[in-house]
Amino acid sequence: MFSSQARCSGHKRKYADRTGSLGCVGWFIVIISGIFAVILFPITIWFCLKIVQEYERAVIFRLGRITDRKAKGPGIFFILPCTDSFVKVDLRTVSFDIPPQEILTKDSVTVCVDGVVYFRVSDPIASVANVSNADFSTRLLAQTTLRNVLGTKNLAEVLSDREGIAHSMQSSLDEATDNWGIKVERVEIKDVKLPTQLQRAMAAERSGAHSSHRPEPALFDLQVIAAEGEMNASRALKEASLVIAESPSALQLRYLQTLNTIAAEKNSTIIFPLPMDVLSHFMRK
Q: Could you say which of 37, 82, 99, 216 is the most buried, measured as most Cβ atoms within 10 Å of its Cβ?
């Protein structure tokens, strides 16, 4: 709370510097503009009278300086022609998707992660005066923050602690965008896509665990999962070879099935299948 008050006081000091005196020449121009607006009142009323909606605020600049420490609105407000200009700021909550990011985790596993961020403008003056495009800057910062936060997590934490990662991202984004007048309200991790090799290794491990009636194992490191998957696959191949050795026709059927699987792949290899009876003569030699 103390740090928040300190940041607010820092913002006020910045605004105080911006809302300094216009000088003699500036006030002279403002007075001339006011006299001009009064003389041509029926016409200039359409240029002086402005309206902002309930969810909007107007930041007024007079000769390039912010006229007040507080934004105008909602409702009707007046500006002087020729000397005043204003910028409308939308205070409603805005959401955007973080594009999928290829991230290397702490345990050297590449994952593809995307998310969504909800934010709103809490200080209209800071969002206009301190950053050129608050919305675009927040989007870019969210992408880099996602990479930085997930780079400190291992794969198990990425898959199991999404809520903690989202909270950490929200805190980092909120602190970084405070000077821009942006309040990050919520961050959500939408999807975590694993590499195909890791998915196959995990599927093989899960299949081996179910076949041996063991409980679902915890998530191991990529190398451990791949090694256990290879071991289970080797055992299954050994059992299959014993069955095939007892029946030559089973070997022929397995051979044809393998050819069918290879032919289904999108490649340019041409395979000429030969009967096993022809090959068996050479195999005996």
A: 37
CA distances from 158 to 108, 151, 202 (A): 13, 10, 16
The counts of H helices and E strands in the chain are 11, 8
- Nearest CA-CA partner of 118 in 99, 97, 132, 146: 97
Helix 162-176 / helix 134-150 crossing angle, nearest 10 deg: 140
pLDDT tens per residue across span 61-106 = 988 888 877 888 898 888 888 888 899 999 999 999 999 988 888 8
Distance of CA 161 to the CA centre of its chain: 16
**% of the chain exceeding 90 in pLDDT:** 27
pLDDT of 219 strictly over 60: no
Q: What is the pLDDT of residues 109-165, one digit of tens each?
A: 888 999 999 999 999 999 999 998 999 999 999 999 999 998 888 888 888 888 899
Cβ-contact 158, 192 below 8 angstroms: yes
The Cα–Cα gap between 270 and 285 comes to 27
**Residue 269: beta bridge partners?**
none
Supply φ then ψ for residue 112, to 5 degrees.
-110, 115
Q: How far is CA 146 from CA 62, 98, 157, 177, in A?
A: 40, 9, 14, 15
Q: Domains in the chain, ordered, with CATH?
A: 16-90 (no CATH), 94-194 (3.30.479.30)
